[in-house]
Design brief:
The chain is mainly alpha-helical and about 80 residues long. It has one domain. Helix content is about 65%, strand content about 5%. It is built from three helices and two strands; from the N terminus they run H-E-H-H-E. Strands 1-2 form a two-stranded parallel sheet. The longest helix has 24 residues. The radius of gyration is 14 Å and the shape is globular. The termini are far apart.
Length: about 80
């Protein structure tokens, strides 16, 4: 049972990271969408709500599917 609780905590953390990153940049990556779809069966109600919100924002054009370029990389 301990491993299951750890898995749920890891998924919750990742879902939160995906949501916050998408909201702060306006971009969700294809890899993040793939991760969301493969792990959605393990989401809590709150995580499901965030995933639905991301989908609605994508549908409305407020989020874009793309890539993020990391800043401050020395040349």
């Amino acid at each position: 049972m301990g491993a299951n609780v750890m898995l749920e905590a890891e998924i919750a953390m990742l879902m939160g990271e995906v949501f916050l990153e998408a909201m702060s940049t306006g971009i969700v990556t294809q890899a993040e969408i793939d991760w969301l779809t493969t792990h959605q069966a393990q989401f809590s109600r709150e995580e499901e709500a965030k995933a639905l919100q991301l989908g609605r924002l994508l549908d409305a054009g407020q989020l874009q599917i793309g890539c993020r370029i990391l800043g401050n990389i020395p040349a």
